[in-house]
Design brief:
This protein has 349 residues and is of the alpha+beta class. The chain has helices spanning 2-33, 45-62, 73-82, 101-111, 138-142, 188-200, 214-226, 240-244, 257-262, 281-284, 286-294, 299-312, 316-326, 328-331, 337-347, and strands spanning 37-41, 66-70, 91-95, 120-137, 170-171, 174-181, 206-209, 233-237, 247-249, 271-278. Helix content is 48%, strand content 18%. The strands form three sheets. Strands 3, 4, 8, 9 and 10 form a five-stranded antiparallel sheet that branches. A three-stranded mixed sheet has the order 5-6-7, with no helix packed on it. A two-stranded parallel sheet has the order 1-2.
Length: 349
Amino acid sequence: MQKNQVFTTRMLIIGTSMLLIVFMAFGSAVAASKKPIIFADFGWDSAQVHNRIAAFILSKGMGYDVKYVSGETIMLNTALIKAIGGEAPNVNMESWHDNWQELYDKGVAAGNDPNTKEGLIDLGPNFPNSVQGWWVPTYMVKGDAKRKIKATAPDLKSVTDMPKYWELFKDPEDPTKGRFFSCVPGWSCGMVNEKKFKAYGTKQFYNIMEPGSGAALAASMESAYKRGKPWIGYYWAPTWVLGKLDMTMLEESPYDKAIFEATAKCAFPAVKCNILIHKKLPEWAPDVVEFLKKYNTTLDINNKFLAFMQSSKSNTDQAALWFLENHEALWTTWVTPAVATKVKAAMNK
């Protein structure tokens, strides 16, 4: 009798162990079956910080592998729509698609077409009311008594006033024209600026300078500002540089969709920077999509984490952690309590 009990006990232990092994193997298989979330890692800081905020939550709290694919606007969004190759991005956390409207419209149309695997879904705004335009230091228009800088262009209020003041912005490589700082090559805003130059007749007075990176564009503005020198060019917010420096955006006629698409001879649209995903993402990562639908920030929050980056010389990963530490009341509304607990634990390691 005792031998039978021992035998039965051993069999129960063996059976339980085998069951545990099966469950563990099943759990591993489930985790392994999760496809990676691949972020379009554009060349500007705010997009990269949002990528890393979302990636930290997805990897530490929801068990997903995450990747980043670097590149420029048109290239990455085309890859997202077409799902080109196994390393194509499937998430765009910060879409300024008013600057690439035609491609965006095609992507949305494909996303609604059940007969194709291509296409995108727009999940709505990450943050609303971002701005972009052409800027000059305010001291050029109003002066700066504290820095003993006199106004050198008091009537420079509109883009149409630019021809009158081109000599203030002389291009050192071509003194017959002024120098206008535009976008990094490959950014869609560069094509918009080209259209504006043609529409406003500005090209005969200014050369377009395309910096090699977003950091170089910001550095050109900050360097001129620190020295109290003239500077004119394109920029956008949220950015640390516009939060830190007193800049004036040149006036244009109000935004008109038809005019903007035809000639761009009007103001940039007030942009809602939306989150875009590949159309198939809801099929294999519905929990990720639900999280991204709830993800939302503000222009002020973006300026703050960008200002933190600049003042503390932090990278985008550190800025993401700073956000998670300082805006817990916000990001915990995007996820379940269980996910929030895992994320907080990972933050404290």
